[in-house]
Here is the input.
Amino acid sequence: MRTYLALLFSGLLFAAPLAARAEPIDFTEKLDIGISTDEIAITSDFRGADLTIFGAIDGADPGLLAQGKYNIVVALEGPKENTTVRKKERVFGIWINTNSMTFEKVPESYSLSSTRDIETIAPPGDMNNMGIGVDHMPLTPIGFIGDGSNLTEFRDAFRRLRETTGIYQRDPGGVQFISSSLFKASLRLPADVPNGSHIVRAYLFRDGLFVAAKALELRVVKTGLEQAITTAAHQQPFLYGLVAVLLAVVTGWLASIVFRRD
Amino acid sequence: MTVYLPIAELSVNIFIILGMGAAVGFLSGMFGVGGGFLITPLLIFYNIPPVVAVATGANQVVASSISGAITHFRRGTIDIKLGTVLLCGGLAGATVGIWIFALLRRIGQLDLVISLAYVLLLGTVGSLMLWESINALRRAAKNETVTLKRPGHHNWVHRLPLKMRFKKSKIYLSVIPIAVLGFCIGILTSVMGVGGGFIMVPAMIYLLRIPTNVVVGTSLFQIIFVSAYTVIVQASANYTVDIVLAFVLMIAGVIGAQYGVRVGQRLRGEQLRALLALLVLAVGIRLAIELVIPPKEVYSIVSAGLGF
Here is the structure.
């Protein structure tokens, strides 16, 4: 019965227009995920963190499961900011920033983990619609961009730079099934992970079709002294500056006493 | 061992930062300069966002200038009156500098202007100092007496109005060139994160003909206040002073400086000046090369936060 229903649904889905594919239709499969913590604390010796997300496919078809037709993609999206890419060109023999393009609300960090390479999980068009993966996330320019002919080069540069610095990363084998319908996803948070509200998004695909999605919030926060310093710097900037100077004065003064030789 | 910098928002290896601080402290103790012109480029090279590097560099300069100035104060080689005139110009310059800094950051040319300014300044000052010290070394080799022009030899600077008597320096000089010099150095302090001693000292000796013995102490006196002012303004306006980074740099810096002073005392004045000139030139050339050779990556990313 379930197989029949599933077949019926996938039949319906093929009939539906392409754009509608991104919207989950009422599949029998449900996706559930959980993380051990909803908060990552940045301490003074923070060197990045590994995050494990557990999940289960509810109501999966055992036959399809056995054939490995189910694929899971888990993405951790950092806080979103408008981001500018600048390009240097040679002007009078020196290299200076000439062109720039600003993209609207792109994640400051992005970590992707999947059962296999996402390009083989679903057609690129679907991935673009849902914005899954570094190559598919929407990069919408804001402001004047001329005829848009350099849009591709700026987008490519953005993706390349973010991946080479490791703030965007992908792990095509990071999601593993630990039992027939239970899976675990490993995500790496780099040492320079931005503070703020991150979102864990999990997507379930069945045989190339998007079936279900689930999102959870993960907060990355500074703690203790680090938090106190940041708060002070932003809430009491003048006092903070004064303390910084005072610290320098005391250090310099102590040094001149300790090392006094006359 | 890593340490998280709360304002720069990244983890760094504490030993690398300590090493930088100690090395720059050593050189600054050896040559009697603040070392800001070395620490800021080094920090930027180590991926610290330039806006944080400039503001935090100024904080480190406060610590190293204080310990130097106290020594000079004990020896009585600070002209407070002269220093105060310099300081008035300096504070005005620093205020203008902060404004320029914010403007350049907005239009995306801050890194270019910082690099160009460094190349220009370090190149000029380095070449002049090298030229002067090589001549001095050659004279010393021939056992000639060094004939620095005595104060009292007048140039156009001494024909300006608003003259004032500076007892400690034993000079009678217009306040205009002094305040203008202070003003220019003030701009550099807030835009480049340098104390400016490496420019101020030669300018005071060769341009204003202030006796050498009070020059270093007096310039340190002015640098303390202008840097401190810059730190407070940068902290208030841009939130870019990283107190953890500054503290690590300071500790290593003041210790390194003590060893630098000892090595410096074993060298003769003109030898020291020649070495400092070479160092200044080397940093300048390194930055110039970066501007001229095709970069490995022509693109750069700026997010709304600390980058620029």
In short: Chain A has six helices and 13 strands. The longest strand of chain A covers residues 94-107.
